[in-house]
Design brief:
- The chain is largely without helices or strands.
- It contains one helix and four strands; from the N terminus they run H-E-E-E-E.
- It binds zinc ion.
- Zinc ion binds next to loops.
Length: 77
């Protein structure tokens, strides 16, 4: 087996080990329909458009409080 000629310095070791910790920001482009930041090759979450046409129907939040189906039926007689 070939052996290393010289010992690598602590600095060099640290540079090697510390080189992979950074998180890269995602590539964001803007939606041509509404201008919201979107990931490339993804449907816009704001308006539901992709490649210039509407793909998704975006549900808008109603101000009415929704029933969660937790109506307690009174069985006591
Ligand atoms: Zn959009």
């Amino acid at each position: 087996m070939p052996q290393p000629k010289k010992r690598h310095s602590n600095s060099r070791q640290g540079k090697r080990r510390g080189a992979h910790w950074k998180i890269t920001p995602p590539n964001l482009s803007t939606c041509p329909q509404c201008g919201a930041p979107i990931l490339p090759h993804h449907v816009c979450a704001k308006c539901g458009h992709y490649k210039g046409r509407s793909v998704l129907e975006i549900k808008t939040k109603d101000k009415k409080t929704r029933d969660k189906g937790k109506h307690k039926k009174e069985t006591k007689e």
